Amino acid sequence: MRTPFRSPLGPTKASAAIEKYVPVGSVVSTYGFYSGEVELYLSNRSRFILSHTTKEAVFDIWQTLFDDPISVSEIASRILPFKGDKDFEILQEQWYKYRNAPARAALFFILNNCSDRAYISKGKLDLSNYNPVSLSRLKKFVKPENFHLQLIESVKKSITEDNRSDVLFFHTERYQKDFLSEGFNRGVEEESMGLREILTLIENRKYVILTTPSPFLSELDIQNMTFIDEYGREATEANAKEVILHNV
Fold this sequence. Notes:
The protein is an alpha/beta fold. The protein has a single domain (15-246), classed as Rossmann fold (3-Layer(aba) Sandwich). It contains nine helices and eight strands. Strands 3-2-1-4-5-8-6-7 form an eight-stranded mixed β-sheet, covered by helices on one side. Strand 6 (224-228) and strand 7 form a beta hairpin.
């Protein structure tokens, strides 16, 4: 079952490569859950996925989708077209205030697919990103039996107390030596975890981290890097679009 949502980090072709580092039957804890592309892929291939988010908005949307995807898809199908950019911006500001849960989830879906950045609370209107196939995927979505999502207060606390997982998985933004804030408030759906912070938290744990190549990665204490090209094949660093950091 594929996700109906787009990731702000961009689509990945690395799922099959990641699968090689996660044995069948493994319990995998993932953090910063959003679109679920890799997590759902693994859960459909006999891995037990325990995903976590600190964002109530993300948890709420996915729980609604698990419970009633048909209602969500029916509402989503009636939202377009927008009258203009202003309508889009108003919904970006107000979407989570809707009391009806399927309506909130439908707005999440539409804003996610019509934002040039795949975020819900920010990004410019870009209808070229909307794919009607995703609407069908939304309607037919069924939660995999091996997948579970939890709302947590703290990533650090959850990782520290986790004694069930064989492997930890993260999908992170491109690593920068000096992290610079965008200067904007984050939306209610946005969760940010820096790579250096993650590596500190998971010291002595088995991990797989998906990110994009950066000249600064060599400065970090990382055991193995597998570079992935635009087709999902292992590649040289010069031809890589994604990189898997792992110690398994």
